[in-house]
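Lab notebook, bench 4. Still working through the backlog of constructs that have no structural model yet. Next entry is a single chain of 187 residues. Request: give me the structure tokens for it.
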Amino acid sequence: MNEIGKKIKEIRKKKGLSQEELADSAKVNLRTIQRIENNESEPRGRTLNLICDVLDSNVEDILDYGKQPNTSYLTIFHLSVLVFLAIPVGNIIIPLILWMNKKDKIVGLKDIGANLLNYQILWSIITFLCITGFTLSKIMHYGYYPILLYMFIGLYALNIILPVIFAIKTSKGKVAKMYPTVIKLVK
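Model written out:
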């Protein structure tokens, strides 16, 4: 439980808040924030909820009850997207199965998984629209089909390159949401 103060301090700094600003926003005494961040005391229910609300974090993520860090699983999770090369929509199904089985057991997987799945859903929709547009343009003899084909190839290459890069970063210890998120269907 010594990590609670450290996690709160990290999140506070990422948000660009001072201890005073956090204390004011959470309606908590400044000394309380200082004690928590120095691991002199642990925040209790209401205090922890107020701090988490200001930091836009879940209490579960800060406490990490029963969760273990596992960068090798996260690395495999990123690479599981590449299944789309053999199985259509495998880039969503396989990561979804992996995410559902371990999201409450591995630190960071809940957020990383939601981020990855949201990106893959959007990527699948855009890729489908590109290939459908290409096919229709080719059949109807419109001149747009080369552009749509190049977009399709570019999207395919992007979905091979990004998971590999993110898997390498994760294996080196960078555990964070990395995919650009436009829509949030999975939370």
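Notes after review: The mean pLDDT is 87. Residues 111 and 141 are 44 Å apart (CA to CA). Flag for follow-up if needed.
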